[in-house]
Each structure stands twice: as C-alpha cells, then as structure tokens.
Amino acid sequence: MAETGSDQPSRxxxxxxxxxxxxxxxxxxxxxxxxxxxxxxIMALVMVTHVLGRTFFRxxxxxxxxxxxxxxILITFVGVSYAVRRARHISMSAIYDQLGxxxxxxxxxxxxxxxxxxxxxxxxxxxxxxxTIYARGRTTSALNIPLWIIYAVLPVGFFxxxxxxxxxxxxxxxxxxxxxxxxxxxxYDDVPADGTNSIPTENTEKN
Length: 207
What we know:
Blueprint: H1 2-56, H2 64-85, H3 101-136, H4 147-151, H5 153-174, H6 202-206
Helix pairs in contact: 1-2, 2-5, 3-5
C-alpha cells in the first residue's frame, strides 16, 4: 500500500513531458489489449466453429491453420510490448535481487537501456525481412494472404517493446522511486539497502 502513496509525488514531479508520454502509453496499452484480447477471442471462435463444422457437417473452415498461425504471431509479438509494460516479462535477476539502493536502480536503468536497444535492433532487422518478403510477393498456400502482412507484426512488436524499456529507464532516471516498467513500481517487498542478501539464516529461523 505504501507503494501507491509513493507514486503520487513522482507523478507531480513528472511535469508535462511525462504526462504526455503517459497519455500516449495508455493509448498504446488500450490498442494492445484490444488486439491481443480480440485475437484470442477470434481464435477460439474459429477453432470451435471449425470443430463443430467437421463434426456435424463434415466440413470445416478453409485455411483454419493459416488463420490460427496468423493470430498466434499477432498475439505473441503485440503481447511482448504489453508484457514489458506490465512488468510480466521473464527476467533473470539472480544478481539484481542481491543489490540495493542506487546500485540496484543503476542496474535497472542499464538493463532497460541495453534491452531496449537490442529490441530496436531486432525491429530494424525484422523490418528488412518484411520488406524482402513484400518484394518477393510471397503468399500463404491456402488463402493467398500476402506474407508481408503477417510478418509486419514483428517489427511493430519489437519496436513497441524497445520503447517500453527505454520509457522504464527514463522513469527511473526522473523519479526517486524504483520502477520495473513505466507504470509499475518495484514489486519486491524486501529490497536490500546495503546490497547484502536478506535471506534469514538457520539460527534466525530457530529463534
């Protein structure tokens, strides 16, 4: 509960720039939630309809495999940005968890900057691959859907995720609190203040 209260001063100090970024971020979040949620619902509807059609009418939806593959790609790469925004992405924090104070925050900023740069590089490479697919005019075998439309999701997803990491770094550099994402405060209940391990020893547990 203390985290919620500590978020209020940082918002007041944020100024108009962070307010603008926060507004854009909320718009992107709504779009991502709509795309991911809608894609999951469409996939479920398509699969159920296909199974029922095969069971009762001996015929299913043409190209159902391609449709589901397209939706899976859409969910995966749009979901990457949403996972970063909500700090639900996988993180390897064996060393990070032992740090405290400014060292911990500096490590968080470094991780966000490097990871964001890597994702933006992947977005650039994915964009080049999408342009190659577009130039070759390749399509899917059953529905003749241009493949570049499917792969265009990759650079968009990588780009949005990279921007989210950089926004997290910006948030940590401009506020006193520690953030795991642009909107999510550090979730650990016990953060070491001196960089030492806070795991209780055997003698402490016995007492």
